[in-house]
Amino acid sequence: MNLLIAFLALLVERLLGYPDTLFKVIGHPVSWIGKLIGMLEKRFNTASAPFEKRREYGALCLATLLVLVFAITVPISLALRSLPFGWLIEAVLASSFLAQKGLGDAVAKVQTALEDGPIENAQEAVSHIVGRDTSALDEPEIARAAIETLAENTSDGVVAPLLYLVIFGLPGIALYKAINTADSMIGHRSERYLAYGWAAAKVDDIANFIPARLTAILFAASALVVSGASASKAWATATRDAKKHASPNAGWPEAAMAGALDFGLGGPRSYQGQFLDLPQMGDGRRDLGATDIGRALNLYQRLLWVLILSTGLAAIFFAL
Protein backbone atom coordinates (compact mmCIF):
# COMPACT_ATOMS: atom_id res chain seq x y z
CA MET A 1 0.00 0.00 0.00
CA ASN A 2 2.82 2.43 0.80
CA LEU A 3 4.28 1.89 -2.68
CA LEU A 4 0.96 2.67 -4.32
CA ILE A 5 0.54 5.76 -2.15
CA ALA A 6 4.09 6.86 -3.00
CA PHE A 7 3.49 6.36 -6.73
CA LEU A 8 0.29 8.41 -6.67
CA ALA A 9 1.89 11.10 -4.48
CA LEU A 10 4.72 11.45 -7.02
CA LEU A 11 2.26 11.80 -9.89
CA VAL A 12 0.06 14.33 -8.07
CA GLU A 13 2.98 16.53 -7.02
CA ARG A 14 4.74 16.22 -10.38
CA LEU A 15 1.64 17.36 -12.26
CA LEU A 16 0.07 19.83 -9.86
CA GLY A 17 2.55 20.78 -7.16
CA TYR A 18 1.11 22.56 -4.13
CA PRO A 19 -1.58 25.03 -5.30
CA ASP A 20 -0.71 28.68 -4.70
CA THR A 21 -4.32 29.45 -3.75
CA LEU A 22 -4.23 26.78 -1.04
CA PHE A 23 -0.95 28.15 0.27
CA LYS A 24 -2.41 31.66 0.50
CA VAL A 25 -5.42 30.37 2.46
CA ILE A 26 -3.90 27.83 4.88
CA GLY A 27 -0.15 27.86 4.26
CA HIS A 28 1.83 24.64 3.79
CA PRO A 29 2.55 21.73 6.16
CA VAL A 30 6.27 22.54 6.06
CA SER A 31 5.55 26.19 6.87
CA TRP A 32 3.47 25.05 9.87
CA ILE A 33 6.39 22.95 11.04
CA GLY A 34 8.72 25.91 10.48
CA LYS A 35 6.57 28.20 12.59
CA LEU A 36 6.67 25.74 15.48
CA ILE A 37 10.44 25.40 15.17
CA GLY A 38 10.76 29.18 15.18
CA MET A 39 8.54 29.56 18.24
CA LEU A 40 10.50 26.94 20.20
CA GLU A 41 13.84 28.45 19.15
CA LYS A 42 12.78 31.94 20.19
CA ARG A 43 11.65 30.66 23.58
CA PHE A 44 14.51 28.29 24.47
CA ASN A 45 17.62 29.37 22.52
CA THR A 46 18.66 32.16 24.87
CA ALA A 47 22.16 33.60 24.63
CA SER A 48 22.40 33.76 28.41
CA ALA A 49 22.07 29.97 28.81
CA PRO A 50 25.28 27.86 29.02
CA PHE A 51 26.39 25.98 25.89
CA GLU A 52 25.46 22.53 27.20
CA LYS A 53 22.08 23.72 28.43
CA ARG A 54 21.29 25.23 25.02
CA ARG A 55 22.25 21.94 23.40
CA GLU A 56 19.89 20.09 25.75
CA TYR A 57 17.10 22.55 24.99
CA GLY A 58 17.66 22.05 21.27
CA ALA A 59 17.46 18.27 21.59
CA LEU A 60 14.31 18.48 23.73
CA CYS A 61 12.64 20.88 21.32
CA LEU A 62 13.46 18.62 18.37
CA ALA A 63 12.03 15.64 20.27
CA THR A 64 8.90 17.67 21.06
CA LEU A 65 8.48 18.55 17.38
CA LEU A 66 8.82 14.93 16.27
CA VAL A 67 6.43 13.64 18.93
CA LEU A 68 3.81 16.17 17.84
CA VAL A 69 4.20 15.29 14.16
CA PHE A 70 3.99 11.58 15.00
CA ALA A 71 0.95 12.09 17.22
CA ILE A 72 -0.89 13.98 14.46
CA THR A 73 0.01 11.90 11.40
CA VAL A 74 -0.34 8.37 12.78
CA PRO A 75 -4.06 8.71 13.70
CA ILE A 76 -4.73 10.42 10.36
CA SER A 77 -3.03 7.61 8.46
CA LEU A 78 -4.83 4.88 10.43
CA ALA A 79 -8.19 6.61 9.99
CA LEU A 80 -7.73 7.04 6.24
CA ARG A 81 -6.70 3.43 5.74
CA SER A 82 -9.85 2.29 7.51
CA LEU A 83 -11.94 4.09 4.87
CA PRO A 84 -12.69 2.82 1.37
CA PHE A 85 -10.17 4.49 -0.91
CA GLY A 86 -8.88 6.55 2.00
CA TRP A 87 -5.38 5.80 0.72
CA LEU A 88 -6.12 8.18 -2.16
CA ILE A 89 -6.49 11.01 0.35
CA GLU A 90 -3.31 9.87 2.09
CA ALA A 91 -1.46 10.05 -1.23
CA VAL A 92 -2.67 13.63 -1.79
CA LEU A 93 -1.61 14.62 1.74
CA ALA A 94 1.78 12.95 1.29
CA SER A 95 2.33 14.78 -2.01
CA SER A 96 2.56 18.06 -0.08
CA PHE A 97 5.83 16.86 1.47
CA LEU A 98 7.47 16.29 -1.94
CA ALA A 99 9.12 19.16 -3.83
CA GLN A 100 9.92 17.83 -7.30
CA LYS A 101 7.79 20.38 -9.21
CA GLY A 102 8.63 23.36 -7.00
CA LEU A 103 12.36 22.61 -7.10
CA GLY A 104 12.44 22.28 -10.87
CA ASP A 105 10.38 25.44 -11.37
CA ALA A 106 12.60 27.49 -9.02
CA VAL A 107 15.81 26.44 -10.78
CA ALA A 108 14.21 27.02 -14.19
CA LYS A 109 13.46 30.62 -13.14
CA VAL A 110 17.19 31.15 -12.59
CA GLN A 111 17.91 29.80 -16.07
CA THR A 112 15.31 32.11 -17.62
CA ALA A 113 16.62 35.12 -15.70
CA LEU A 114 20.16 34.45 -16.94
CA GLU A 115 18.94 34.08 -20.52
CA ASP A 116 16.83 37.25 -20.48
CA GLY A 117 19.03 39.47 -18.29
CA PRO A 118 20.00 41.69 -16.66
CA ILE A 119 22.29 39.86 -14.22
CA GLU A 120 20.52 41.43 -11.22
CA ASN A 121 17.37 39.47 -12.06
CA ALA A 122 19.32 36.21 -12.01
CA GLN A 123 20.96 37.19 -8.71
CA GLU A 124 17.50 37.80 -7.27
CA ALA A 125 16.11 34.52 -8.63
CA VAL A 126 18.94 32.41 -7.24
CA SER A 127 18.76 34.15 -3.85
CA HIS A 128 15.43 32.39 -3.25
CA ILE A 129 16.98 28.91 -3.44
CA VAL A 130 20.46 29.29 -1.88
CA GLY A 131 21.77 30.45 1.46
CA ARG A 132 24.91 32.15 0.14
CA ASP A 133 25.29 35.85 -0.66
CA THR A 134 24.18 36.40 -4.28
CA SER A 135 24.43 40.16 -4.82
CA ALA A 136 27.92 39.99 -6.35
CA LEU A 137 27.68 36.66 -8.21
CA ASP A 138 28.54 36.58 -11.92
CA GLU A 139 26.89 34.24 -14.45
CA PRO A 140 29.09 31.15 -13.84
CA GLU A 141 28.71 31.53 -10.07
CA ILE A 142 24.93 31.86 -10.37
CA ALA A 143 24.76 28.82 -12.61
CA ARG A 144 26.88 26.73 -10.24
CA ALA A 145 24.78 27.83 -7.26
CA ALA A 146 21.55 26.83 -9.01
CA ILE A 147 22.94 23.48 -10.16
CA GLU A 148 24.38 22.65 -6.73
CA THR A 149 21.04 23.45 -5.11
CA LEU A 150 19.21 21.32 -7.67
CA ALA A 151 21.51 18.37 -6.98
CA GLU A 152 21.41 18.57 -3.18
CA ASN A 153 17.67 19.18 -3.00
CA THR A 154 16.95 16.27 -5.30
CA SER A 155 17.95 14.21 -2.28
CA ASP A 156 16.41 16.37 0.45
CA GLY A 157 13.23 17.33 -1.40
CA VAL A 158 12.43 14.25 -3.48
CA VAL A 159 14.40 11.05 -2.91
CA ALA A 160 14.60 11.12 0.89
CA PRO A 161 10.95 11.99 1.59
CA LEU A 162 9.84 9.43 -1.00
CA LEU A 163 11.98 6.74 0.63
CA TYR A 164 10.50 7.41 4.07
CA LEU A 165 7.00 7.45 2.56
CA VAL A 166 7.59 4.02 1.01
CA ILE A 167 8.91 2.57 4.27
CA PHE A 168 6.74 4.28 6.89
CA GLY A 169 3.79 5.86 5.06
CA LEU A 170 2.45 9.35 5.82
CA PRO A 171 4.04 9.52 9.31
CA GLY A 172 7.43 8.66 7.82
CA ILE A 173 7.46 11.40 5.19
CA ALA A 174 6.11 13.98 7.67
CA LEU A 175 8.73 13.09 10.28
CA TYR A 176 11.51 13.31 7.70
CA LYS A 177 10.37 16.76 6.57
CA ALA A 178 10.22 17.90 10.20
CA ILE A 179 13.83 16.76 10.70
CA ASN A 180 15.01 18.33 7.45
CA THR A 181 13.19 21.61 8.11
CA ALA A 182 14.69 21.81 11.59
CA ASP A 183 18.17 21.29 10.15
CA SER A 184 17.66 23.97 7.50
CA MET A 185 16.46 26.47 10.11
CA ILE A 186 18.67 25.80 13.12
CA GLY A 187 21.29 23.25 12.08
CA HIS A 188 23.96 25.84 11.27
CA ARG A 189 27.50 26.17 12.65
CA SER A 190 26.95 29.79 13.60
CA GLU A 191 27.33 31.19 17.10
CA ARG A 192 23.55 31.34 17.49
CA TYR A 193 22.81 27.77 16.43
CA LEU A 194 25.97 25.75 17.12
CA ALA A 195 24.65 24.47 20.45
CA TYR A 196 20.88 24.69 20.02
CA GLY A 197 20.88 23.20 16.51
CA TRP A 198 23.35 20.40 17.26
CA ALA A 199 20.70 17.68 17.62
CA ALA A 200 18.82 18.79 14.48
CA ALA A 201 22.01 18.68 12.41
CA LYS A 202 23.04 15.26 13.73
CA VAL A 203 19.62 13.67 13.25
CA ASP A 204 19.39 15.13 9.73
CA ASP A 205 22.81 13.65 8.89
CA ILE A 206 21.56 10.23 9.97
CA ALA A 207 18.22 10.56 8.16
CA ASN A 208 19.93 11.53 4.87
CA PHE A 209 22.79 9.03 4.93
CA ILE A 210 21.11 6.45 2.69
CA PRO A 211 19.01 8.86 0.56
CA ALA A 212 22.05 10.96 -0.43
CA ARG A 213 23.91 7.91 -1.71
CA LEU A 214 20.78 6.59 -3.39
CA THR A 215 20.40 9.94 -5.16
CA ALA A 216 23.94 9.62 -6.53
CA ILE A 217 23.06 6.18 -7.88
CA LEU A 218 19.88 7.57 -9.43
CA PHE A 219 21.78 10.41 -11.11
CA ALA A 220 24.20 7.86 -12.53
CA ALA A 221 21.34 5.67 -13.76
CA SER A 222 19.53 8.65 -15.26
CA ALA A 223 22.70 9.70 -17.10
CA LEU A 224 22.30 6.54 -19.19
CA VAL A 225 19.34 8.12 -20.99
CA VAL A 226 20.70 11.69 -21.28
CA SER A 227 22.66 12.60 -24.38
CA GLY A 228 26.20 13.67 -23.55
CA ALA A 229 26.00 12.52 -19.93
CA SER A 230 28.18 9.81 -18.41
CA ALA A 231 26.88 7.30 -15.87
CA SER A 232 30.35 5.93 -15.12
CA LYS A 233 31.80 9.40 -14.46
CA ALA A 234 28.83 10.26 -12.29
CA TRP A 235 29.47 7.37 -9.93
CA ALA A 236 33.26 7.63 -10.07
CA THR A 237 33.16 11.33 -9.22
CA ALA A 238 30.66 10.76 -6.40
CA THR A 239 32.79 8.07 -4.76
CA ARG A 240 35.94 10.20 -5.13
CA ASP A 241 34.72 13.71 -4.28
CA ALA A 242 31.73 13.30 -1.96
CA LYS A 243 33.95 12.85 1.08
CA LYS A 244 35.55 16.26 0.43
CA HIS A 245 32.30 18.03 1.28
CA ALA A 246 31.82 19.43 4.77
CA SER A 247 28.48 17.62 4.92
CA PRO A 248 28.57 13.80 5.11
CA ASN A 249 25.71 13.67 2.62
CA ALA A 250 25.44 16.75 0.37
CA GLY A 251 28.58 15.88 -1.58
CA TRP A 252 27.07 12.69 -3.01
CA PRO A 253 24.38 14.17 -5.27
CA GLU A 254 26.49 17.24 -6.10
CA ALA A 255 29.51 15.19 -7.13
CA ALA A 256 27.35 12.74 -9.07
CA MET A 257 25.76 15.54 -11.10
CA ALA A 258 29.16 17.16 -11.65
CA GLY A 259 30.59 13.91 -12.98
CA ALA A 260 27.57 13.06 -15.09
CA LEU A 261 27.59 16.40 -16.95
CA ASP A 262 31.33 17.17 -16.78
CA PHE A 263 30.82 20.21 -14.54
CA GLY A 264 33.06 21.70 -11.89
CA LEU A 265 30.94 22.49 -8.84
CA GLY A 266 31.71 23.61 -5.29
CA GLY A 267 34.51 26.01 -4.49
CA PRO A 268 34.59 29.45 -2.82
CA ARG A 269 31.44 31.28 -1.75
CA SER A 270 30.18 33.69 0.92
CA TYR A 271 27.54 32.89 3.53
CA GLN A 272 26.13 35.82 5.50
CA GLY A 273 29.34 37.79 5.01
CA GLN A 274 31.61 34.86 5.92
CA PHE A 275 33.93 33.65 3.13
CA LEU A 276 34.22 29.89 2.74
CA ASP A 277 36.67 28.11 0.43
CA LEU A 278 34.86 24.81 -0.06
CA PRO A 279 36.24 21.81 -1.98
CA GLN A 280 35.44 21.39 -5.65
CA MET A 281 33.23 18.59 -6.97
CA GLY A 282 34.22 17.21 -10.38
CA ASP A 283 36.97 18.02 -12.86
CA GLY A 284 34.86 19.67 -15.55
CA ARG A 285 34.11 23.23 -16.65
CA ARG A 286 33.39 25.90 -14.04
CA ASP A 287 32.45 28.62 -16.53
CA LEU A 288 28.84 27.46 -16.55
CA GLY A 289 25.83 29.35 -17.84
CA ALA A 290 22.10 29.19 -18.53
CA THR A 291 22.47 26.32 -21.02
CA ASP A 292 24.22 24.23 -18.39
CA ILE A 293 21.37 24.81 -15.93
CA GLY A 294 19.12 23.44 -18.66
CA ARG A 295 21.29 20.34 -18.97
CA ALA A 296 21.14 19.82 -15.21
CA LEU A 297 17.36 20.20 -15.27
CA ASN A 298 17.16 17.64 -18.07
CA LEU A 299 19.10 15.13 -15.96
CA TYR A 300 16.85 15.95 -13.00
CA GLN A 301 13.68 15.37 -15.04
CA ARG A 302 14.97 12.00 -16.21
CA LEU A 303 15.67 11.05 -12.60
CA LEU A 304 12.07 11.93 -11.70
CA TRP A 305 10.78 9.62 -14.42
CA VAL A 306 13.08 6.85 -13.19
CA LEU A 307 11.56 7.30 -9.71
CA ILE A 308 7.98 7.35 -10.96
CA LEU A 309 8.38 4.31 -13.21
CA SER A 310 10.34 2.25 -10.68
CA THR A 311 7.88 3.07 -7.87
CA GLY A 312 4.92 2.23 -10.10
CA LEU A 313 6.44 -1.06 -11.25
CA ALA A 314 7.30 -2.00 -7.67
CA ALA A 315 3.71 -1.24 -6.59
CA ILE A 316 2.38 -3.51 -9.35
CA PHE A 317 4.87 -6.28 -8.53
CA PHE A 318 3.99 -6.40 -4.82
CA ALA A 319 0.27 -6.18 -5.60
CA LEU A 320 0.36 -9.36 -7.74
UniProtKB/TrEMBL annotation:
GO biological process, one term: cobalamin biosynthetic process
Entry keyword Transmembrane: yes
PANTHER family assigned: COBALAMIN BIOSYNTHESIS PROTEIN CBIB (PTHR34308:SF1)
Entry superkingdom: Bacteria
Transmembrane segments: 57-78, 158-179, 303-319
Molecular functions per Gene Ontology: ABC-type vitamin B12 transporter activity; threonine-phosphate decarboxylase activity
Membrane topology: Multi-pass membrane protein
Metabolic or biological pathway, per its Swiss-Prot or TrEMBL entry: Cofactor biosynthesis; adenosylcobalamin biosynthesis
Keyword terms, alphabetized: Cell membrane, Cobalamin biosynthesis, Membrane, Transmembrane, Transmembrane helix
Main function: Converts cobyric acid to cobinamide by the addition of aminopropanol on the F carboxylic group.
Protein species of origin: Pelagibacterium lentulum
Gene Ontology CC terms, in alphabetical order: plasma membrane
Locations listed in the record: Cell membrane
The keyword Membrane appears for this protein: yes
Record-given protein name: Cobalamin biosynthesis protein CobD
Protein family membership: Belongs to the CobD/CbiB family.
Principal place of residence: membrane
